[in-house]
Design brief:
The complex is a heterodimer of chains A (364) and B (637). Chain A has 364 residues and is of the alpha/beta class. Chain A folds into two domains: 257 residues, Thiamin diphosphate (ThDP)-binding fold, Pyr/PP domains (Rossmann fold); 77 residues, no CATH class. Helix content of chain A is 28%, strand content 19%. In chain A, the strands form two sheets. In chain A, strands 2-1-3-4-6-5-11-7 form an eight-stranded mixed beta sheet, sandwiched between helices. In chain A, strands 8-9-10 form a three-stranded antiparallel beta sheet. The longest helix of chain A is centred in the N-terminal third of the chain and has 16 residues. The relative contact order of chain A is 0.13. In chain B, helix 9 packs parallel to helix 14 and helix 17 crosses helix 20. The chains are: A alpha/beta (364), B alpha/beta (637). Chains A and B meet through strand 1, strand 2, helix 2, helix 4 and helix 10 of A and helix 1, strand 9, helix 9, helix 11 and helix 12 of B. Strand 12 of chain A pairs antiparallel with strand 9 of chain B. The structure holds iron/sulfur cluster (SF4). Iron/sulfur cluster (SF4) binds next to loops of chain A. Chain B: Keywords: Oxidoreductase. Chain B: One of its GO terms (molecular function) is magnesium ion binding. Chain B: InterPro entries: 2-oxoacid/accept_OxRdtase_asu, PFOR_II, Pyruvate:ferred/Flavod_OxRd, Pyrv/ketoisovalerate_OxRed_cat, Pyrv_Fd/Flavodoxin_OxRdtase_N, Pyrv_flavodox_OxRed_cen, THDP-binding, Transketo_C/PFOR_II.
Amino acid sequence: MTELGIPALRSGTEDVPTTDLKQTGKDFTSDQEVRWCPGCGDYAVLKAVQSFLPDLGLRRENIVFVSGIGCSSRFPYYLDTYGMHSIHGRAPTIATGIATAREDLSVWVVTGDGDALSIGGNHLIHTLRRNVNMTILLFNNRIYGLTKGQYSPTSETGKVTKSTPMGSLDHPFNPVSLALGAEATFVARTIDSDRKHLTGVLAAAAAHRGTSLVEIYQNCPIFNDGAFDAIKNPDTKADALIPLVHGEPVTFGARDDEGRGDKALVRDEQTGGVKIVATADVDASDIVVHDAHNDDPTMAFAISRLTDAGYLNTSPIGIFRQVERSTYDDAAREQVAVAKNGDAADRAARLTALIGGGDTWTVL
Amino acid sequence: MTHTAKQVKQLDRVIIRFAGDSGDGMQLTGDRFTQETAAFGNDLVTLPNFPAEIRAPQGTLPGVSSFQVHFADHDILTAGDAPDVLVAMNPAALRANLGDLPKGATIIVDTHDFTARNLTKAGYSENPLDGDTLAEYALHTVDLTGMTVEAVKEFGLSRKDASRAKNMFALGLLSWMYGRPTESTHAFLAKRFAKVPDIRDANIAAFKAGWNFGETTETFIVRYEIKPAPMAPGTYRNITGNLALSYGLIAGGVQSGLSVFLGSYPITPASDILHELSKHKGFGVTTFQAEDEIAGVGAAIGASFAGQLGVTSTSGPGVALKSEAVGLAVMTELPLIVVDVQRGGPSTGLPTKTEQADLLQAMFGRNGEAPVPIVAPQSPGDCFDAAVEAVRIAITYRTPVMILSDGYLANGSEPWRIPILDELPAIDPHFATEKNYGSGDGAEFWPYLRDDATLARPWAIPGTPGLEHRIGGLEKGDGHGNISYDPANHDFMVRTRQAKVDRIADSLPPLEVDDPDGEAKVLVLGWGSTYGPIGAGVRRVRKAGYRVAQAHLRHLNPFPNDLGDILRRYDKVLVPEMNLGQLSLLLRGKYLVDVVGYNEVRGLPLKAAVLADVIGGLVAEAEGIEVDLTTKESSDD
Ligand code: SF4
C-alpha cells in the first residue's frame, strides 16, 4: 500500500534493471544551469523529481525523460538520465516508440497544458487509450509561458492576455476529465508546492503499469501569477482542496478530531453526479467512499467535474483512477515474441526463405 | 479434349489490358495472368489502374478499373504505350479505354452488360457493338457472363454469385489464347476460396470453361505464342514495388542486426507496406498503426533513439505532416527511414495515380537548413535494393533518409531475380559503449563528437551506463551537444550537417552512363520510375540508327560526385519527369547546366513513343541532322 491508499499492481518498472548503489538526488542532477524564471513552480517539481528518483532504485541509464516544447519541457536537460527534448506536442509519440522498443526502460514524459492539450491533444488521448507504459507529468500553469503569455486550453474563459485583449472565448479543458474520457488507466492531480503529496503521486504513477497521467498544478509567477492561490493559501486551501484517498470517505474543509472534514461528497440524485454538502447534514453512510480501482470511470469523472473551470476555488486532488489493463507495449512485444517463437532458424536463413517464397522459376 | 485446328502465330510481345467495373475483379484477373506469364518465363511489366473510390457507382466511367500487362520474348522496360488487346467487361470499360487502342487492336467484349441502362450509364446513346464504329478493330463479342453462369450452374449459386466468376472465364480464355500455364491459377483459387467450396469450385469451373471455349469456338481461330525471354541465370519471382520495398526494409534490419520499427498511418498507395511488414513480426519487426502521420514518425524516432531501426511509410500528404519531425531527426542525428510512395498532388490530388512531384518536398520541405539524403528506386524489383541502400545510409551516417517510390512502382510488377543475401552490404550500427572525451575520472561522453570519415555522431542507446545524455531540437554545441545559442557554433553546425550529407557521395559508385560508342551528343537523365519509359524511348532512337546516352539517378541527395562532369560532357541533357521540372531545377542550380525538361503530370507513366520523339528532336538539333524514327522493326519497349 502506498501512502495514498493504492495497493501496487504489476509494477510499471518491473522489467527495468535495478541497482544496489546508493543514489541521491545529486546523481540525477545534470551539469546544466537551470533557466526558469525565479519563483517558477517548475523548480519545485524538478527538485521533487530529482529527490524522488533514487527511491525507485533503478539504474540511471535505464531512465528516459522525453519532453515537448514549453517552459516545463526543458526538464530533461536538468536530469542526468537519457533524455530527449523533442517537438511541440509530440513527446507522447516518441515515448511510445521508446517504450514499445524497450521493456527495460522507465519512460517519462514532461509536458505542459499547451503542449499536451492543444497542439498535442490527439497524441495524449491516443496514448492514454492504448495504455503505453509511461508516466506523463502534465505541468498545468493555465497559460502559455514560453511564448510570453497567451491563454492556453486550460485558461478560464474571458482571460485577458496578449492575444485576447477583450477576453478569451474558449471554454477550457479539464485535463482529468479529458483523461478519464480517453479511458486512461491512471489519472492523478497534484500541486507543485506540496512536495509530500507530489512525491506520493509520483511513486504511485511510476509503480502503475500503463500510461499514468499526472496533472501538476504549477504556478507561473510571470504570466499567470496567483492562478492557484485559493488552493495554496493556508487560510483557504482546506475549503478549496478535496483530497482523494482510496478507500476513504471524501470529506474536506475544517477537520474534526477524527480527521473528518466539515464538507463531504454525496451522490447527487438530480444530476447523477456528486455534490458537496455539509458533513453534519448527511448520514455518514451516504458519503462517497473513494474507489480508484473501480473499473467504471463514472464516479471518478463525476468527482473530476467539481474542479472549477474558472478561477480555481475548488479542486479535487489525488489519484482519481488506477485500474489494471493490458498495456500496448507489453502486448506488442508479446506478438513479436509469439511470431519469433515459431521460427527457430536464424534471421538470414528465414529472410532467404521469405524473399524466395511464392511462385518462382529458375533460369540456368 | 478435342482440338479444333487452330492457327498458331508467333509474336515477340503483346500488351493486354483487362478492364471492367471496380467490382469485377480486374486487378485479380490481371494479377493471375501476370503470375502465369511470369511462370512461363516471359519478361513482363504491369500497370494496374484503379479508381480512388472503393466502389465507384457501378457501370460508370469513374468506376472503371483496369490492369495492363506487357509481356515479351525479350527484355522489356515498360507496361507498353498502347494495348494490342482490350478485354472490356461492360460498356463503361470499353468507352474508357477505347481511346488508348491503336487501329487493328483486338477487343473482346462481354456483351452481357450492354443493356440500354448500362449503355446510358457509360454515356453511349447507341450500342457501339452495332453499326460500324468499331470497324477498325478486331472485335469479338462474347456473352462471357452468360456462359459463366451456364458453366457453374451445377454448384447451385445465386445468379449474382455465379456471374461473379466471369472474370475467371475471361482469364481462362486469354490463358488459352496465349498458351499460359494454368497450374498456379488452379492452386491459387483452391487456396483463396478454401473456406467456401462452392465459390472455389465455381471459379475453377469458370476458368476451365473459358479455356475450353477458346479451344472449341469458331470465334477465335488463332492462338499466339510468345517464347520465354532469355534472362540472366538466377531464381526469379514476380514482385510489386511495395512488396520489394517491404522485403528490403526487413533485409536492412537483418543486415544491421537491428529490429525494424514501423510507425505508420494508412494512406494510399503506401498502406501495403504497413500490411506487409505487420506479417513479419517473426523478424523482430514491430508495426505501430499510429493515430496520425506525425505520431507514426514520432514513434519511429523514439524507436531509433532506443536502438531500433525506425521507419515510417506514407505518401506525399503524409510527408507534409511529418516534416517537423523529420527536422528533429536531422537535428538529433538519428537514423530514420521515411518512405514516400508518391501520388498525384497537390493536397489529396490523385491518390491512386502516379507522380514524381515530391522531390523538392523531400529535398527542402522542412524549416531551416535540414538536408536529408534521398534515394529512389527505378523499377518494382529495385525497390528492394533502394530500401537496403537507404538503411545503409541512415545507420552509417545517423540521418533520416527519404525513399521516393511512386504509385506506379508500388503496384506495378516485374520479374525479379531473387538476391543472394551474401551480396548485400553488411551494415554496422556501431553503438557507442565508451566515454569518448577526456580520460580517467574526468572522462565524459560527448554525443556530438564526430567520426572523421563520415562525420557521423555516436549513437549511444539508453541502457548504456555512463553515456547518459540529452538530445533535442534546439541547436547543439559542437562536440558536447549541450544547448548552444552561439552564432559561430550555429553557423558551424549548419555547415557540418550539410557536409555530413554531402560526404555520403564519397561512398557511392560512379554513375553508370549507357553510351554504347561514347559518341552521343545527347544524354537522357532520369530518376525513379521513369527508368522504363526512358530506356524504351532510348532503344527506339538507337534502333532507328541514332546515338543517345542514358543515365539514371539512384541518389538524388547527394548527387554522385561525377554527375557534374557527366552533364558537361554532352551537348544536350534531357530530363524527363512526371512533374514540372523538379530534378531539372536542382541540376541547373547545382551545376549551371542548361538541361532540357520533358514534363508530364497525367497520373500515368510516360510513354516510350513520346519520349523517343522528344529525344529524336534533340538529337537532330545537337547533331544538325534529320531524324526519322520510323523503322520497320517492332519496337522493344
Ligand atoms: S514563464 Fe512562467 S512557466 Fe515559464 S519559466 Fe517563467 S515562470 Fe516558469
